Amino acid sequence: MILALSRGVYFAATMFLFGDAAFGVLLRAKLPMIMPLRIWPLRWAALLVALLASCLWLGLAAAEMAGTLNGPVLAETVTATLFGQLFLVRLMALLAMAGLLLFWRKGKVMAVLAAVALLAPSVTSHAALASPAGFTAIGTIMDAVHLLTAGFWIGGLAVLAALFRRKEPNLLLALSLFSDWAMIAVLLLVMTGLINAAQVLLGGKGAFSTLYLAVLGAKLALVGAMLWLAAANRFKYMPKGQEAAIARNTVRELAAGIIVVLLAGALGQLQPLL
Fold first, then answer.
1. Among 7-21, 165-179, 193-207, 245-259, whose mean pLDDT is lowest?
2. CA torsion sign, 91 to 94 to 100 to 101?
3. pTM, to two decimals
4. Cβ of 99: how many Cβ atoms within 10 Å?
5. Percentage of the chain modeled with pLDDT above 70
6. What is the mean pLDDT of residues 236-243?
7. Rounded distance, CA 103 to CA 262, Å?
8. What b/e sequence results for 231-255 when a residue is b if at least 16 CB atoms lie within 10 Å of its CB, and e otherwise?
9. What Å distances lie between residue 109 and 18, 101, 153, 213, CA to CA?
10. Closest by alpha carbon to 143, among 274, 267, 52, 256?
11. Which of 131, 149, 132, 148 is nearest to 140 (CA)?
12. In the chain, where does DSSP find H-type helix?
C-alpha cells in the first residue's frame, strides 16, 4: 500500500513539474502579455515531494525484492538492477531541477529535466514488460507518451488554477490555448491508455485480477468525469465568458486528475493477471 502510494505521489509531483514548465513555455511563446507565474514555493514543494517519494519507492522496492532492507541491499539494488539505475537517472534529473530553481530558472530546460524524471519509470512499466520479446521499446514508448500527455494535462490545469487565483485579465486566452493543446494531449492519452491496457490484460496468460479491474475501472470513470468537465468548460462556459464556472470546473478536474494519478500508482503494483 505504501509502495503504491509512493509511486502515485511521485508521478503526481513530476507531472505537475512537467506540465507547469511545458505550459509555461507555451504561454511565453504564444501569449507573452501574460506574466509568468511566481509560484516558486509550490515548485520547490513538488520537487521535494518527488525526491522523497522517489527515495521511499526505491527503499520499499528493494525491501520487497530482497525480503529485507539494509545498506548492502540498497547498494545492490541501485548498481545491479535496471530499476535502481533508473532511480539514479531520476535522482540526477530532480537534483538538476533544484539547481535550475536556485540559479537559472529556464523553462525549456526545466521541462526537459521534468520529462526525464517523469518518463524514466516507463522502462520498467507493466506495458513495457508485457510487450512481445524484442519489442519492449514499443511498450516503453506507449507508456512514455501516456505519462507525458497526462503530465501536460494535470500540470496545465494547475497553472490555470493559479492564473484564476491571480485574477489574470487574459485568462480566457490562456484557457483557449490550453484547451487547444490539451485536446491533442487527451486524444494521445486515451489512445495510449487503451493500447497499454489491452497489451497488459491480453498479452499474458491467466485469469483477470478482480482488484486490478476494479481499480482500472475507477480510474477510467474519473477520466471520463474529467473529460466531461473539460468539455463543459470548452463548449459551454468559455463562449459565455463565465470565468467563475470555469474556475470551479478546473479545480474539480484537477482534483479528479490527482486521484487518477494515485490510482495509476496503485495499478503499477497490482498484478493484472492471476
1. 193-207
2. negative
3. 0.91
4. 10
5. 96
6. 88
7. 32
8. ebbbeebbeeeebeebbebbbebbe
9. 10, 11, 19, 38
10. 267
11. 131
12. 2-30, 40-66, 71-80, 82-99, 107-119, 126-129, 136-166, 171-202, 210-232, 243-267
Give the other-Cβ count within 10 Å of 272's Cβ. 20
CA proximity to 196, closest of 149, 258, 255 = 149
Please give the C-alpha separations between residue 181 and each of 34, 43, 100, 268, in angstroms, as whole numbers: 17, 22, 26, 28
DSSP label at residue 208 = B
pLDDT in tens, 27-74: 999 999 999 898 999 999 999 999 999 999 999 989 988 888 888 899
Residue bearing cell 540559479: 103
Which residues on neighbouring strands pair with residue 273, listed in sequence order?
Answer: 208
Distance from the Cα of residue 251 to its chain's centroid: 17
Q: Are 58 and 71 in contact (CB under 8 A)?
A: no
Q: What is the pLDDT of residue 204?
A: 65
Q: Which residue's entry shows cell 465568458?
A: 241
pLDDT score of 264: 87
The C-alpha cell that represents 104 in the structure block: 537559472
Rounded distance between C-alpha atoms, residue 67 and residue 164, angstroms:
48
Check residue 184 and give its pLDDT. 93
Mean pLDDT of the chain: 89
Q: Please give the Cα distance from 2 to 191 (Å, whole number).
A: 30
Distance CA 8, CA 233 (A): 27
**How far is it, in rounded angstroms, from Cα 76 to Cα 139?**
27
The pLDDT, as a whole number, for residue 127 is: 61
